[in-house]
User: Fold this.
Amino acid sequence: MFEFEKKASYVMPAHFGPRPMNPKASGWYRDVTSMVLSYRTDRDALAKYLPAPFEVGEEAIISVFYARNRQVDWLAGHGYNMIAVNASVVFNGEKDQLKGQYTLVMWENLADPILTGRELQGIPKVYADIPDHSVIAGDWSASASHFGHKIVDMSVSNLRDATEEEIKAGEDEQAEDVPMAWRYLPGVSGFGRTTSEPTVYPSQNEFTSIRVGEGSINWHELTWEQNPTQFHIANALAGLPILEQKPALVTEGSTNLILFDQLPRAIS
Assistant:
């Protein structure tokens, strides 16, 4: 008869045993190409999607992050694509006082990182079709869709190398920003809850190239018939006004998602 080991790590289906571990596995994503588009939105509109004790940060900034992840160690070298939507926030908890990025939603095109990210880190991940980005005459573009209907289109043009001052400012901002999310697991049948808690999930980035350009983003409003499980997410994001477009980034480098001295944890 199957029995759970008290100190082992499991994900469903747990009865096949603990999560497989391999000496070659790590948290390193060896080849990451990304696009980041940021814009200022309405504070009150954004606040509607932030559970207490999260609050809108100094500026109401939305950052849309596309990444083509390749040579992922824990996936035995396989990769996947993602588009995440983050909001600049502060967390005013009873114990923790943090400043950083709150993940509103993260689309990925592979089930494995979706399941582990949702269950182990509390990141609100969902599925979408996300093809590799394209580069035409120096203009970069990426998109996400589901059930054949577009969710978002994003592009960056007029790219140039980042200055030393811009790189330093970005490094300082990254050092202060803490990635945060909300881990919500509903009860059996979908009613009630078993877990509802804010989390942090630190990471480490190393860049080999940073370029700055002009970003453009288009959120598509959808109907229930077009996207029955996610239309409300797309429409909520489409409803956040773009008041000021910030400089966009295109980066290349690597990312480590497992920092043993800063593991994901619940905050309060």
Q: What stands out?
A: DSSP finds four helices and 15 strands in the chain. Residues 164-176 form the longest helix (13 residues).
